[in-house]
Amino acid sequence: MKYTTKALIAAVTLCMSASAMASSHREAPSITKTPKVDASDFYMFNSYEANRADYVTIIANYLPLQDAYGGPNYFALDDDALYEIHIDNNGDAVEDITFQFDFTQELNSIEIDSDGNPSTPNVAIPLSNAGDASNPTNVQTNESYNVTMVKGDRRSGSRTSLGNFDKPFDYIGTKSFTDYPTYARSFIKPLNLGSCGTGRVFVGQRAEGFAIDLGKVFDLVNLNPLGARDGGTNTLADKNVTSIAMEVPKACLVNSTSKDPVIGAWTTASVRQATLVNGNPASGISTTAKKGGAWTQVSRLGMPLVNEVVIGLKDKDKFNASEPKDDVAKFAPYVFYPTLPALIQTLYPQAPAPTNFPRQDLVTAFLTGVPTVNKPANENMVPSDMLRLNTSIAAVAAANQNDLGVISIIDAQNDGRPSTANDVAGFPNGRRPGDDVTDIALRVSMGALCHAGLPAAVTCVPADAKAGKALFTDGALKPATEFDSVFPYLTTPTPGSR
């Protein structure tokens, strides 16, 4: 296929106006207006904490690019929104199980006698806390959340309440919290899922786990994509996110009839259709608007980077509002004829773009799963964007993980790093915190799967992708050993003050 001027302009526009390589930070025009419901990263992997081989960990990150010092109102989630994690366990691109998280923020107004005169009123303090913030009575606002499991349709299916839990306050700083790691871990709670077992749940602020040199990527990929893998700067290193983390027994997720070990998952956030702004709000919190109407989905994330480097700018909000079952009808051309490889070829002529159109190898990576690795057994599966995980593939310990995941089966891709070759326990077979999804996505978009020796379903060969074995990278690394090796895996957030 010949790359036309129109296609190249579209590719450059995509890079300049969208979050070109950020996993999902400010990825669509409308979501920039409501950052509390912006899903930034989604992980799903077979747990590699010791003695947890029968569990799957799922993490949905929201409210990205948090500056730790952003007080006195820190980073509460939206108590007028509904956050969800969906599981498809039969390959039809429709949720079979949904875990819903509904948040409540309550005011514990702290008032003091500022003048020492008992006849004058006490006055509310302006800061978020008055003393040790690990004591909830010293904090002005407290968050809790209810977890509900829905079997079948997310809105009309059978509902089971799994309990109400407290969320730790954000890491204000080392004066307000003398031991934040211990404080935060006290909020990891058991999650009783009935006959299939008991999992764990945690919702709270974590250090941003995604590593990338954002500024250079936004500046028309102003870096050397064929340079050293550790030659860049992780500009997100001091940012935080809010994580919704679950560890669920595999028996609760896989299809009880087919026993197919492959599951698919994605996360969404929804808000009420109508908002009425109150021009004369009462004292308190969440009093400036009234919201009502049906739940309306405004954020969606399954596979990383899809809405950033695959979906065109004009359809990014449309993608966020869509469901996986409609992906082929609404978005197939973006996968069949991607513009990112054309942009890379234009900026770096030594890296020719693949020529196999339509790009069935990208359909394999993004929409169906890789044959023999994480493609569902259902012959009538519906191609769609979601993370797919083969729960029967054994987890790999953090010290032995290859951050290139499935494409580590290509010998040249191992880059000489001391890690497990042929590590099919990683992305795109699910996604672990240490998987370098940016490098993997760059290489897959440039045709890496054409060199992987996979079954004919990939429908491309090495000659179709002359740069398919090139070691594309953004130069920012954060391997599994830099994360915790226990649930919830993402590390202690950056404090607002040291």
What does it look like?
This protein has 498 residues and is α+β, with helices and mostly antiparallel strands. The chain has one domain. 14% of the residues lie in helices and 25% in strands. It has helices spanning 5-17, 180-185, 214-218, 306-309, 316-320, 327-336, 340-347, 360-368, 437-445, and strands spanning 39-46, 55-67, 81-88, 97-107, 111-112, 123-124, 141-151, 158-167, 189-192, 198-207, 239-249, 262-277, 289-301, 387-390. Strands 3, 4, 7, 8, 12, 13 and 14 form a seven-stranded antiparallel β-sheet that branches. It has a five-stranded antiparallel β-sheet with strand order 1-2-11-10-9, with no helix packed on it. Strands 5-6 form a two-stranded antiparallel sheet. Helix 1 crosses helix 7. The longest helix is centred in the first third of the chain and has 13 residues, at 5-17. The chain is globular, with a radius of gyration of 23 Å. Residues 1-22 have low confidence and may be disordered.
Structure keywords:
single chain, 498 residues, alpha+beta, seven-stranded antiparallel sheet, 14% helix, 25% strand, disordered N terminus
